[in-house]
Amino acid sequence: MAKQFETIALIGIGLIGSSIAREIKDKGLAGSVTVSTRSEATLKRAQELNLGDRYTTSAAEAVKDADLVIVSVPVGASGAVAAEIAANLKPGAIVTDVGSTKGSVIAQMAPHMPQGVHFIPGHPIAGTEYSGPDAGFIGLFKGRWCILTPLPDTDEAAKARLRAFWETLGSMVDDMDPEHHDKVLAIVSHLPHIIAYNIVGTADDLEAVTESEVIKYSASGFRDFTRLAASDPTMWRDVCLHNKDAILEMLSRFSEDLAYLQRAIRWGDGDKLFDLFTRTRAIRRSIVQAGQDTDMADFGRHAMDQK
Ligand SMILES: NC(=O)C1=CN([C@@H]2O[C@H](COP(=O)(O)OP(=O)(O)OC[C@H]3O[C@@H](n4cnc5c(N)ncnc54)[C@H](O)[C@@H]3O)[C@@H](O)[C@H]2O)C=CC1
Ligand SMILES: O=C(O)C(=O)Cc1ccc(O)cc1
């Protein structure tokens, strides 16, 4: 495939950054890739995995001659990274990110972006519960959505280049208003993780009462929750703190609906239960039909088994 950028800088080289690095190398999308991350140990591992061409713990150093900068760090670290790289960004460079929240990332990064640099926030809706440079794999973004949340004055040509990049990685790309993104993602991604953390925590608290039977007899329903609840604590702490309003709004709706369900169970209202379960089954079936049901964890494990 053709080279799309002369130099790409990857700031943060965990699951997402290293998946992007693998894709760039595999498809020959850059003349040169500079990998940067804060910790020496992670950088060393990235080098062992041969994820880039140059390696540095200085994000400022990494972006010096980059045409595309992709920031793939926990959303709480976005502001610090933006402040560190700002003075060294090349005029005309595209700066993007992959953070799970967008309003907060824009608030943290946009004020640092110099004139002449194209800042286009993004979010690939693809991942697994694994983290770190070993967790990435080719194919993670294939058939998945990538949402761009451009600012009002975004250069169309720069946006088209970033869109083409994600499409080369196999993604379908949509533009969205950041506030809307944060609401949609709160219900489809953030709440499921919070519910998973909560139910697994509750089960763990009950261990003493149930004499370890919770884990011993865990059925597939509970196991599905444990997969989500195994996701990276730093990343999800940051998501909760940085999409607070939308998450609290969705949690309040969720609690109301849970109370409705609780009441139907208490009063033996089978019709209400049956109606809800019928409606939700149809949603699952429409997702499966749309081909969005791949279990990313299994996909990830499969990809890693093949290494
Ligand atoms: N894990 C997932 O399933 C998905 C994650 N995201 C988003 O992608 C971003 C990265 O997530 P992952 O790759 O999963 O995380 P990860 O934990 O695998 O990797 C994070 C990387 O950031 C580095 N890092 C942390 N703080 C830093 C700082 N201040 N300066 C420089 N590097 C720093 C770490 O060393 C590591 O290389 C997050 O914003 C997350 O919300 C988006 C889609 C899916
Ligand atoms: O592992 C899963 O099931 C996920 O939901 C992955 C994921 C996590 C965070 C995102 O912002 C996008 C995708």
From TrEMBL:
The EC number(s) this enzyme carries: 1.3.1.12, 1.3.1.43
InterPro entries, A to Z: 6-PGluconate_DH-like_C_sf (IPR008927), NAD(P)-bd_dom_sf (IPR036291), PDH_C (IPR046825), PDH_N (IPR046826), Preph/Arog_dehydrog (IPR050812), Prephen_DH (IPR003099)
Class in the EC hierarchy, top level: oxidoreductase
Domain (Prephenate/arogenate dehydrogenase): residue spans on this chain: 6-295
Keywords: Oxidoreductase
One of the record's GO molecular function terms: prephenate dehydrogenase (NAD+) activity
Pfam families noted in UniProt: PDH_C, PDH_N
UniProt key word Oxidoreductase: yes
Name of the protein this chain belongs to: Cyclohexadieny/prephenate dehydrogenase
Top-level taxonomy: Bacteria, Pseudomonadati, Pseudomonadota, Alphaproteobacteria, Hyphomicrobiales
